[in-house]
Amino acid sequence: MDGTGWAFPATRAASLERWREFLPRARSYAAFRNRVEPGHPHVSRLSPAIRSRLINTEECIAGLLASFPFASVEKLVQELLWRDYWKGWLELRPDAWANYLAELERVRRTASAEVMGRATEVMAGRGGVGVMDRFARELTETGYLHNHARMWWAGYWCHVERLPWVLGADFFYRHLLDADPASNTLGWRWVAGLQTRGKAYLPRRSNLERYCAPEWLRDPAGMEKLGDDRVQAAPVPWEPELSRVLWVSLPESPRDVPGRWGLWIHGEDLSPELSGLRSLRPAVALTVLDEAIVTKHGLSRLRMQAILRGLEDARGRSSAQYGCPVEHRAAPDGIASMLARVGRERRLDGWVAMRPAVGPLGDAIDEIERVLGDAGLAVQWCRRSWDERWWPLARSGFFPFWEKAERALRRGMNDDPAQGLLLDATAAAVPF
Ligand SMILES: Cc1cc2nc3c(=O)[nH]c(=O)nc-3n(C[C@H](O)[C@H](O)[C@H](O)COP(=O)(O)OP(=O)(O)OC[C@H]3O[C@@H](n4cnc5c(N)ncnc54)[C@H](O)[C@@H]3O)c2cc1C
Asked: What would the pLDDT profile of 395-412 be if each residue is shown by its tens digit?
């Protein structure tokens, strides 16, 4: 539990606290990170906070490199950058998200009652494989699964139960507190064998026995289904060709904003005061809960509570930073109409916001631009310099991306920040 009674930090202060606690274990991360044990002591459990940017990968990496020799924390730096890699990969190939949603819709419409019934049983933790049922319950009860458990469970779903991968991805998306359109969709695609053609992830009994806590394997029910010789990859599902879009750069702070502007703060980035938006002087700052998105994606109660808590925390920090009125509105008719309404009420010239990445909020961008345009309001999208630097590099596999990142990180350590990473103001926020 964090100081506020939550198992996963839902405020920036609690996230920083968790990170400070975890830091001394960063050097043993490579050796122990694959172990799945009660309390998950070998991993940070910061993903819900990182996903909504209560704390940023940039500041975590800066803190690691300031505290330890590169080689001793390389694995953790690499894992943190997996998140940025997946974000960039999806931003360059938004079809992967659109195809996932379309396929989910198609499967829900056309799958047989037998498939849907079995999927429901497995998700409810009644599939009959003791350890997998335990993971299903852990996910719905806590909103979290260890990375290795996610791999085992998704592999079991796709290759043992042979259920449609999109239904499993949707189950994770509804319940994970860190649910992210990039890491989740692409993680599932990888397990199913779509992401790297011909390579799927198969759960193996021997691997579970090596890395999973013995008490979680005590129930032998169904273990024979996970036998090393028994699990075979399911056929790779068909999907339309993915095209790659051109990267469109955005400024880290608004270019020229005379007049009255509002700052829209959303769950994709809950620390605007630690970004290029820190020097903005908004007339109002606003958080919005889009109820249509919540309903469409069926988000769990725990997830909703975490989102609301994160937004509340961001409002508190924004109030201190910007000294302007900070509001929250529920938006039954969607974000676009709420931004237009508050814009009119506050007599704004327009809104400034971080551009949401590909995902449910990203899907709302066209409508936001249209509705605000019709209401005579402008919108200026910004992007963090960190994302602007790393995300466009996710053109192919992770390792070419990592090679570039590693070179830059090592250069950054040789006292020449201009050549290395841009580890500036946000890094200073964490007193290591
Ligand atoms: C099928 C599947 C679905 C997943 N869905 C999500 C998701 O919706 N959201 C999400 O944040 N992660 C997802 N992951 C990645 C990973 O499982 C989680 O990021 C990790 O388990 C979070 O726990 P932690 O914070 O304790 O990680 P730590 O091991 O402490 O790692 C620190 C941080 O690095 C990043 N990270 C670590 N491993 C990965 C990885 N493999 N991919 C991307 N980022 C990583 C995360 O931001 C994480 O918080 C998924 C993985 C799989 C296999």
From this structure: 999 999 999 999 999 887
Kindly report the average pLDDT of the chain as a whole number.
93
- For ligand 1, is residue 184 a contact (CB within 6 Å)? yes
Q: Do 289 and 374 have their domain in common?
A: yes
Two structure tokens written together for 212:
């999973």
Query: Are 324 and 282 a contacting pair, CB within 8 Å?
Result: yes
Question: Per the structure, how many domains does the chain have?
Answer: 3
38 φ/ψ sector (left φ>0, alpha ψ -120 to 50, else beta): beta
412 and 350 fall within a common domain: no
Q: 358: domain range?
A: 261-382
Token couple for 278: 């820190």
Segment 28-38 mean pLDDT: 97
The minimum-distance atom of ligand 1 relative to the CA of 201 is: 53
pLDDT score recorded for residue 4:
45
User: Are 302 and 196 contained in the same domain?
Assistant: no
Ligand 1 centroid to residue 82 C-alpha, Å:
8
What pLDDT, on a 0 to 100 scale, did the predictor assign at position 413?
52
Full-model pTM: 0.95
Give the C-alpha separation, 267 to 252, whole Å: 18
Residue 238 lies in a domain: no
